[in-house]
């Protein structure tokens, strides 16, 4: 079942005890962010704020597409968001998404109007002051208009429509400044407009249905492909879109809020600091003299009645910065590894690593294809780091045997601690794409180049002399099926 809008998804979360409605007055200045962090750091229910101080016609939302409170399947909310069964695991979600990487897609369908146009606001100044934009962290440079919405941009010839999540900070009542990084599709499109020297029309969509948010927040779409087509394929039907009121861009008809305007390519402003996906506040400010940032001018705001303003409050894992981007990165990685004919079974971008570590499991019998584990690990690393723009997300790759569940932190720790030999099993890849925002990229040269070193960790069971060999003593690997079934019936009552 595909949810038609954010509200139907929240109703589903509520029905399963995964939504907490907060009626206490909450300020958008720090208080909302503190509650969001608490929800994420305790794997608590999503938080719906019904009483935002100073904004009686809006509601707020946080922690709605992150890990769930279900210890048996932390990816439960992602599975529900995608319309998959409740017991779908994280690696199964990755495999599901990987199947849509090369799909022809189902294009959105244009409708005359939709709920997002229930209210149209444009004949007033200071449009951003009208919205409940939260100041999420005490160290942030200002309120961040966007942390989990997505920008809609087109190429100048209108052949490519891109939907992409990118951070954006409020400057004043009518302007914001945001990232258009060169490694992201939004940055690639911005540079196409740079060539012709005109302003760039944009729309910022806040509060779309959960599939749309998930796909727009990840790198599943290839260069030149449109996220809207992939979303339609996953939904099994076209997504309804409406035309913006001040441009010809099209946005989801059932979104909560849309901010319309244009990027002025000649204007500069400082941006940041901001708490980012890695869980830290980078104290440096960014200046738009370089093309990685742009100044956005607002021409209109449209929204539903009683609109919901969503945010994600970045910090110590896990939050939506990891659960929305990570599955797409893992899906693209899995496809790249399969295309390279490597014996890979699963891939998972580990949320607990703040989306720094890609865990990869390989099938039995790999040693018959490769002379040693290091060559296999190096080939895995090269395949991941030479794929498309997704490559820069991965800072470390952990390669394990297939008895390891890549979505289980305890399994990964066990494999790393007992199979990765100190000093011997670290393979370094030089001069490959890296994430400049990551705190482990600590030189100006690397941040400017967005290239540096990445580590591949060989966590495969080492080769032993026959008298020293080991095998797993874990339940699923060491015991016969009838003994496992008996244990489950007797102990679990299954």
From TrEMBL:
Start and end residues of each 3-octaprenyl-4-hydroxybenzoate carboxy-lyase-like N-terminal domain: 10-96
Cross-referenced Gene3D superfamilies? UbiD C-terminal domain-like (3.40.1670.10)
Its GO CC terms are: cytoplasm
Give the stretches traversing the membrane: none
Any idea where the 3-octaprenyl-4-hydroxybenzoate carboxy-lyase-like Rift-related domain is?
Answer: 112-317
What residue stretches are annotated with the 3-octaprenyl-4-hydroxybenzoate carboxy-lyase-like C-terminal domain?
Answer: 324-448
Q: Which InterPro entries match?
A: UbiD (IPR002830), UbiD-like_C (IPR049381), UbiD-like_N (IPR049383), UbiD_Rift_dom (IPR048304)
GO biological-process terms attached to the record: cinnamic acid catabolic process; ferulate metabolic process
What GO molecular function terms would the record report? carboxy-lyase activity
Q: Return the protein name.
A: Decarboxylase
Q: Which organism is it from?
A: Mycobacteroides immunogenum
| Upper lineage | Bacteria, Bacillati, Actinomycetota, Actinomycetes, Mycobacteriales
């Amino acid at each position: 079942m595909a949810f038609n809008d954010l509200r139907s998804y929240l109703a589903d979360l509520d029905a399963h005890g995964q939504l907490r409605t907060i009626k206490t007055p909450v300020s958008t200045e720090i208080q909302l962010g503190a509650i969001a962090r608490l929800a994420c750091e305790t794997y608590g229910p999503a938080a719906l704020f019904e009483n935002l101080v100073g904004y009686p016609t809006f509601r707020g939302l946080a922690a709605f597409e992150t890990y769930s409170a279900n210890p048996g399947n932390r990816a439960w909310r992602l599975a529900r968001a995608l319309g998959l069964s409740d017991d779908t695991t994280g690696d199964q979600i990755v495999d599901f998404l990987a199947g849509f990487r090369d799909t022809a897609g189902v294009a959105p369908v244009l409708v005359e109007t939709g709920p997002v146009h229930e209210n149209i606001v444009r004949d007033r100044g200071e449009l951003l002051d009208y919205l409940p934009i939260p100041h999420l962290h005490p160290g942030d440079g200002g309120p961040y208009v966007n942390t989990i919405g997505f920008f809609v941009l087109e190429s100048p010839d209108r052949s490519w429509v891109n939907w992409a999540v990118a951070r954006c900070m409020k400057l004043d009542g009518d302007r914001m400044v945001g990232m258009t990084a060169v490694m992201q599709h939004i940055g690639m499109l911005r540079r196409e407009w740079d060539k012709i020297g005109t302003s760039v029309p944009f729309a910022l969509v806040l509060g779309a249905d959960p599939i749309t948010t998930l796909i727009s927040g990840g790198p599943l779409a290839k260069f030149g492909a449109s996220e809207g087509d992939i979303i339609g394929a996953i939904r099994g039907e076209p997504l309804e879109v409406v035309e913006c009121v001040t441009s010809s861009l099209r946005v989801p008809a059932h979104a909560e809020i849309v901010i319309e305007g244009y990027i002025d390519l000649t204007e500069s402003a400082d941006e940041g600091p901001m708490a980012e996906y890695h869980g830290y506040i980078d104290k440096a400010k960014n200046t738009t003299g370089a093309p990685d940032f742009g100044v956005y001018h607002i021409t209109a705001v449209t929204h539903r009645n009683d609109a919901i303003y969503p945010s994600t409050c970045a910090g110590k894992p896990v939050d939506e910065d990891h659960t929305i981007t990570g599955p797409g990165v893992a899906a693209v990685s899995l496809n790249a590894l399969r295309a390279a004919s490597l014996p890979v079974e699963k891939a998972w971008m580990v949320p607990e690593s703040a989306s720094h570590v890609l865990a990869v499991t390989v099938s039995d019998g790999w040693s018959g294809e490769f002379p040693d584990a290091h060559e296999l690990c190096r080939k895995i690393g090269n395949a991941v780091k030479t794929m498309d723009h997704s490559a820069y997300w991965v800072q470390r790759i952990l390669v394990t045997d297939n008895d390891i569940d890549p979505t289980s932190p305890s399994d990964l720790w066990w494999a790393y601690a007992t199979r990765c030999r100190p000093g011997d099993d670290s393979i370094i890849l030089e001069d490959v794409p890296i994430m400049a925002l990551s705190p482990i990229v600590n030189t100006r040269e690397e941040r400017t180049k967005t290239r540096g070193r990445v580590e591949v960790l060989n966590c495969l069971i080492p080769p032993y002399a026959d008298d020293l060999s080991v095998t797993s003593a874990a339940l699923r690997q060491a015991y016969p099926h009838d003994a496992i079934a008996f244990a489950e019936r007797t102990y679990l009552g299954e």
